[in-house]
Amino acid sequence: MEMCIRTDRIELFKGADRFSNQPHNHGHWYQVTVPIQGICHFTMENKPYQLCGDQGLIQHPGTEHFLHLDTAASVIIIKFREDALQLVGEPGACTEFTEKQRMNPHELSRRFREWTSELMFAESIAPLAAQETEMRVLDYLRNTLSGSHGSGSRADFRGGLVRDVHLNQVLEYMHEYYTEAVSIEDLAAIAGQSRYHFMRTFRKCIGVTPYQYLLRLRVGDAKAKLRNTSVSVADISCSLGFSSVSQFHRIFLKMAGMTPGEFRRG
């Protein structure tokens, strides 16, 4: 059994039940291999490993490796681009991770289910939501993996706290273009920050993620249209940038506590 979801900067993979692959390497990607159940027989640069329990293993870009699983065994593999955790002032530099990593398989399994569930639908429904999930995966890796990117140098990642004027410009942009397909790159560029620091700063200052804030603006506008016009629910949904009426219904119900039709009748 195999499952794989990929974005621009990460790849989430799960293999199980005697899964195996051939020797290969990833030119510009790191790989984190974590056994979830049973034993993962792993070979890296001709050196054999038997991974089990909380024993994770890092493969740096260009490192040849392959694996096979026992019956009823499973493994989660996370790949991320080599520049995803890059340090300030070191463009093109490679982060060096400790080869062996301790990772909680139960926590990783739970997070993996959340990430893959979100990414399966987010890319087609709302690119901003998919980008936020991608950032949460990278944030998990940044906080979990040990290596030269660790907590001692975390303050050296690109960017610092945005000034209020930049955050205000981001909010003004979102208020003007909330019906459009806004991206993390657009917002981070306005704030003058890396994607990672923008996400952290926005949530710290505003209390929600950029996507959640965007949905608040859309639902607020929807309430006004439902209350003050006779425009159909389908047309309101389309005008506010929702991918479908069902998505609009689901988000409106979650945020308003009732369906658009119930809100209009009330």
UniProtKB/TrEMBL annotation:
It comes from the Bacteria. Residues 168-266 form the HTH araC/xylS-type domain. SMART domains: HTH_ARAC. Signal peptide: none annotated. The keyword Hydrolase does not apply. GO terms for molecular function: DNA-binding transcription factor activity; sequence-specific DNA binding. Keywords: Activator, DNA-binding, Transcription, Transcription regulation. InterPro entries: AraC-bd (IPR003313), AraC_XylS_family_regulators (IPR050204), Homeodomain-like_sf (IPR009057), HTH-like (IPR037923), HTH_AraC (IPR018060), HTH_AraC-typ_CS (IPR018062), Tscrpt_reg_AraC-type_HTH (IPR020449). The keyword ATP-binding does not apply. This is HTH araC/xylS-type domain-containing protein.
